[in-house]
Amino acid sequence: MEQPTSSNQAGELAVRDLYVQLLGSWNQRDAHSMAGLFSEKGHVVGFDGSVVNGRKEIEAHIGQVFEDHVTASYIGIVREVRFITEEVALLRAVAGMVPPGGKDINAAVNTIQTLLASRQDNRWEIELYQNTPAQFHGRPDLSAALTHELQQLV
Fold first, then answer.
1. How far apart are alpha carbons 97 and 37 in whole angstroms?
2. Span 6-151: which CATH code?
3. What is the model's pLDDT at position 6?
4. 109-136: string of b/e by CB count within 10 Å (b at 16+)?
5. pLDDT category, 5, cuts 50, 70, 90?
6. Neighbouring C-alpha atoms within 13 Å toward the C-beta of 61
7. Does position 23 have pLDDT exceeding 80, yes or no?
8. How far apart are CA 102 and CA 61, in angstroms?
9. 49: alpha, beta or left, given left = phi > 0 and alpha = psi -120 to 50?
10. Given a cut of 90, is residue 85 above it in pLDDT?
11. Strand 73-85 vs strand 88-98: parallel, antiparallel, or unpaired?
12. CB 84, CB 90: distance < 8 Å
């Protein structure tokens, strides 16, 4: 088994922090900050299947979401950070949402999240962020277990 080096430990922390910043920008309803975490050609596949390309479109799309909806806050758990190369990392996470004023995770919108990040000039940027509904069709025990795990963080 490969021993972690201080370089890839620092890289993992930076990629995890990028994900935390992404969820934080959403929770603060800050489309500009959120879009600023993406590369110029970043790509989003939203929970509803919306596909958005490029930092400017991401900001406009997320800004419209915030104008049109009262959004819930994300709670996320990083499952893995894997380096494809020294400059490219894959982060896998699960997330749930707490409605405004609520205290409980809304199990209907639990999600599996994937983030692909690249390092440009010592700055990590999001290349791809994808939300997939965690529906677990026909397996209610998996949905309940994920909701319970996420609820522990609320």
1. 21
2. 3.10.450.50
3. 61
4. bbbbbebbbbbeeeebbbbbbbbeebee
5. low
6. 17
7. yes
8. 26
9. left
10. yes
11. antiparallel
12. yes
- What's the 3-state SS for the chain? CCCCCHHHHHHHHHHHHHHHHHHHHHHCCCHHHHHCCEEEEEEEECCCCCEEECHHHHHHHHHHHHHHCCCCEEEEEEEEEEEEECCEEEEEEEEEEECCCCCCCCHHHCEEEEEEEEEECCEEEEEEEEEEECCCCCCHHHHHHHHHHHHCCC
Place of tokens 């963080």: 153
Residue pointed to by tokens 């709670």: 75
Q: pLDDT for 89-137, tens place per residue?
A: 999 999 999 999 999 999 999 999 999 999 998 899 999 999 999 999 9
Per-residue confidence (pLDDT) for residue 8, from 0 to 100: 79
What tokens were used for 13? 């922390």
Residue 105 C-alpha from the chain's centroid: 16
